Every structure is written in structure tokens, then in C-alpha cells.
Amino acid sequence: MSCAVPAAAAAGGSALPRSGAAEGSQQSHEEDDRKVRRREKNRVAAQRSRKKQTQKADKLHEEYESLEQENTSLKREIGKLTDEMKHLSQVLKDHEKICPLLHCTMNFVTVPRPDALAGCLPR
Fold first, then answer.
1. 117 vs 120: CA distance, rounded Å
2. Mean pLDDT of all residues in 32-47
3. The whole model's pTM is what?
4. 2, 52, 72, 105: least buried by Cβ within 10 Å?
5. Is residue 43 predicted with pLDDT exceeding 80?
6. Is there a contact between 97 and 84 (Cβ–Cβ < 8 Å)?
């Protein structure tokens, strides 16, 4: 017995499966293109994000260094002012030992008089 094969099937199948295979192939190709575009877009976005993050870190580092310099400068100024305060305190103590106004009994008078200082000043 011989098998009869339809002419369309012998030639590679019917027209319907061919177009379906072609559409499937085209859809697959379009999906691949979309995936490639999406990956590229994602890659660019990731690069942008990393660059932005690096710039932010650089800016923070610069701000840190600036604040460190300012802190060092302020500590130096505190030291100078502390030294000046100690010096002036010592000058005041030395002056208090010899100041005639501090030793004058007239300074303890509660009613101020215009001539009150005249009695304490050296003549």
C-alpha cells in the first residue's frame, strides 16, 4: 500500500503553519529587540545612578575636609584666646595688688561723691 501525501504537505506544510512560524519568529525577534533596548536603558540608568552616587560621596568628602580645616582653625583660635585670657587675668591680679583705688576706704561708701576718688589718688 502506498501512502498518499497531499501536495501542500509534501512541499513543506500548509500555508497556515508557515505564517505562524514566521510570526512567531518575528515576535521572538521583536521581544529580543525589546530586551536589548531595555537592558541598554537599564545599563545607562545604572551608570547614571553610580555617577550620581560618586558625585554625592565626593561632595560629602569635600565638605568633611572643609569642616575639619574649620575645626582645626577654631581650636587654634580657642588656644590663642585662652592664652590671652590667662595673660590678662594675671595682669589684673598684678594690678589689683598695687591699685590704690582698690585699697581706698572711700570705695566702700554707698553714696557716690564727686570728690570720692580725689582722696584715693596719689598727690
1. 5
2. 96
3. 0.50
4. 2
5. yes
6. no
